[in-house]
Amino acid sequence: MAAAGIGCSTSVFSHSDPAPVELLLSGRHQAYQAVADGLLQGLTRTAAGRRLRVAQQQLPESEPSAEAALLVAVGARACERVLEQQAVPILCVFIPEGRFRTLAARKRADQLLGAIFIDQPIVRQLALARALLPNAKRVGLLAGAQLSQAEVALRRAALALGFRVNLEVSDGGKDVAPAIRALLQRAELIVAAFEPEVLSVSTARWLLQGAHHRRIPVIGYSAAYVEAGALAAIYSSPESIGEQTAGAVLAWARQRQRWRPPVSYPEQFELSINASVASALGIDAPSLEVLAERVDRLIGDSR
Hints:
- Helix 5 (about 120-130) packs across helix 13 (about 290-300).
- The protein starts with 20 loop residues before the first strand and ends with a helix.
- Helices cover about 45% and strands about 20% of the residues.
- By secondary structure, the protein is α/β, with parallel strands linked by helices.
- The protein is elongated and about 55 Å long.
- A six-stranded parallel sheet has the order 2-1-3-4-5-11, with helices on both faces. Strands 7-6-8-9-10-12 form a six-stranded mixed sheet, with helices on both faces.
């Protein structure tokens, strides 16, 4: 089944369902289209999904349709745009949790709004760190607004996995540099959490360079982090987030008026290891399959 054409409103499935689902993509980035493709492929696996009428729009060329019965916004820009709609259930996907929480504060009381985040729960990164570094005790994290607000839960999750946390807080301004320096001086390992306002491309590069110089392992949140010199990372592909979105759309199709949109992290995740960094740090990294099993077990044991 081919995906809908970019920049146009295209009916992807049959018209047997009079209430359309509309996807609004935040732009032309390949990752947004991959989420849409994963969603459409997920729907084609069930008869109910194949009966749904689905259209696709893209910013900035198009606006959300007034006829949609369910709006699926892919990315933060699309989520912000669809929140202007009247009394239509909204599912924002592939969006940072912090950005979604900010936008959700603006919603009307009668508006149904859910999300599937792009970022991982911090416990997954901590579990990956523990799986690779069974003897580590002190973990450092650079916190922006999101982690700062969740500090109690973060420390509880870390303690359950045997870590003490060094949390350096930054607002993304001029204090990012001293916060990173403090982490590099105190931490035994560093978890680079998904905090875009404090870990930009340039600050992430500086963090990795400093960690490499001091032989400190870094656990990242994307394959790009591993390519840039992190020991390992845990993340979810756009396609898997799209498939998870398909499940939420099917639930909406079944329940309609009774539907309550999810607010959740990605269900599926992938792992990546930098073998060169592991070797340089003297870490005997297992296969990805074994590592994934360890991470799953550690997450289960920490609950």
